Amino acid sequence: MESIRLKIKYHNEELERLTYVEGKSDWIDLRCAEEISFSKGDFKLVNLGVSIALPEGYEALVVPRSSTFKTWGLLQTNSCGVIDESYSGDEDVWRWPALATRDTVVHVNDRICQFRILKHQPALVFEETDVLGDKNRGGFGSTGRN
To answer: Can you tell me the distance from the alpha carbon of 64 to that of 93, in angstroms, rounded to the nearest whole number?
Structure first.
C-alpha cells in the first residue's frame, strides 16, 4: 500500500500524537485538545489541536467515532465534515462541531472523532436519459427487508 506523508502541527503539547495502525482501520482517531463542558442543548466547536497540510488533490472526511454518542451524548452538527487541502495554514486548527443531548464533559486526549483522506472526485458529465436499464431495488430504505 502506498504511504502518503502529511505535515502536522500540534497546538497542544499534551495531545497524544496521531498514529496510523496498519491493518486495523483506515480511519485515524482525533482527540479533544482542551477540557470542554457542555450543557444539554449547547453547540460548541471542539478544538482538535491539529493543523494538517493535506496533499494537493485530497480532502479529509471527519465523522464521529462509533462510541461518541454513547459516551458523551454528542452529535456532529454537519453530519460529515469535509476539509480540503486549502485549509492548511499554521492556525487552521481542525475543529469538530458538536451538539450536546445531555450535560457532559470531554477531556484532553479523549478520542472524539475520526478522519480519513480521499482523492477529490473526478470531473463528472451528466448524460440525461429516460431509461437507466438496471434492476429496481425496491425504493429508498428497502435494503435488508425480506
So the answer is: 17
Half-sphere exposure of 136 (CA within 13 A, CB side): 4
- pLDDT tens digits, residue range 4-38? 999 999 999 999 999 887 777 789 999 999 999 99
What is the CATH T-level fold of the domain 7-119, as seen in this structure?
Deoxyuridine 5'-Triphosphate Nucleotidohydrolase; Chain A (2.70.40)
Domain boundaries, the chain: 7-119
What 3-state class would DSSP assign to 61?
A: strand
Q: What is the pLDDT of residue 138?
A: 78
The pLDDT of residue 115: 97
The amino acid that residue 47 corresponds to is N
Strands 81-84 and 28-31: unpaired
Which single residue is written with the C-alpha cell 483506515?
Answer: 26
Q: Region 70-85: what's the mean pLDDT?
A: 97
By annotation, the residues acting in catalysis are 84
